[in-house]
Amino acid sequence: xTTSEESFVQQLLEERDPLFRExxxxxxxxxxxESFESERTSYQEQLLVKDKTITKxxxxxxxxxxxxxxxxSERFIKEDPNQRKLDFDGLDLLxxxxxxxxxxxxxxxxxxxxxVVVKERVQPVRKPLPEDLPREECHIYPVRVDLxxxxxxxxxxxxxxxxxxxxxxxxxxxxxxxxxxxxxxxxESPIITAPMPLLPIPKSYAGASLLxxxxxxxxxxxxxxxxxxxxxxxxxxxxxxxTINGWFQDVADLMRPTWYRLRELVLESDYIQSDExxxxxxxxxxxxxxxxxxxxxxxxxxELVFFHYDHGSRAQKVAxxxxxxxxxxxxxxxxxxxxxxxxxxxxxxxxxxxxxRRHFEEALKEDKARASYALEQIGLLYDVERRADQQNLxxxxxxxxxxxxxxxxxxxxxxxxxxxxxxxxxxxxxxKAIRYTYGxxxxxxxxxxxGRLKIDNNLGENAVRPIAVGRKNWLFCGNDDAAExxxxxxxxxxxxxxxxxxxxxxxxxxxxxxxxxxxDYSKDLAELLPHNFKKSQSxxx
Length: 541
Description:
single chain; alpha/beta; two-stranded antiparallel sheet; 7 strands; 8% strand
């Protein structure tokens, strides 16, 4: 290579190096820009997720505010006749259908106008204290009274309600013994001893009243066992926690056969309501609280209530096992588990208008016009039910009234649902409300066929309410066995409430009499249930 060639190559190398460094720098900048763009995209996605979360939280807050501070309007809808007029624009109603609907609306409004009664405000008056309470008198005399020159008038009496701490006492069972005074040499001398009465828990010093109060304090007054133990100590009584838990387990075991008999009676009826509610359970394997479910089944006509717990499951297999032999009408919310009974012979599922109404109530702030309209139409259906209640109609008369007034409203409302669904966002609140209602509309409308059937499941939900209050106080159940024991107690408590029976009176009666059924299989355990206890106390059985 010549000198000129070497010089040329050297020149090229010198020119290449800056270009190479500049290229490397530019590539590095491009990579940085790409990384920045990727990060920006990631941040945008995160912000979008957070915005959705904030929106959901705002909706939850609004719902909670409405529940806590809002006026309860399950049945009583705002009176606005203008809103209650059906808008037939866009509805595919035949002329005769339109005429029937308008006639039903007119009759409902006319009855509402007639039944309006203005109530006079009555000034509240303090009720007198019960006359059967013992009175302790405290006499107070004025000072500096000249009794020789003054005559006593009728004194002024003020009554104060006082309370002493619970009275503890020990009931001593003394069994007397007898022996023959004179006996022959060959004659045995037996000792005759009075028999021991049947105790609620054998070899235990807990009486029926104490056991009843412990259970009532936990499941009616919602006081956990540890709080009760603290109260006992303040009153000078010391009972170990293990002893309290053992007593409760024994009482639950005593109730269990009667609980099984109650389940048979409930499922033998031809019209039941079913609902589920959560109950916190301690999972010993995970060492944390998990959400379990307890089932409520209510026999509508007999008003018997049964709670069922199956390892906290809400799965379809529980329903299949629980209702496998049931024949009749079952009223539920829109939970998909119950859809299997649509095709079961002898079973007629019906829906709950209260659940549908709640969906539209949640959509008020999103789409007030459509939600208010839907609420008003559902309110018309409840107007018909109130009219039937006020007129004390028979089942047949109630069914005829529903056919004449409620059914036309439901026909028009269904067509409104169809016409409006494609106009709203499917994932919006109003869209979900319309989809939910229309999805179970065939179930919602079936109640009008039989006057015995209820428009909603509210009575069943009222039976579940004590569990919701209780879990806020005793927080959780220790295991599955404890949850089943709770289901047993709530079943008996619900039956007492439905039969207007004092739970304490019934529980003491049960504990004192349950052992009479231990070995006598000819007796029916149903005799121990609260509704039969009420009959026995009134002398009807």
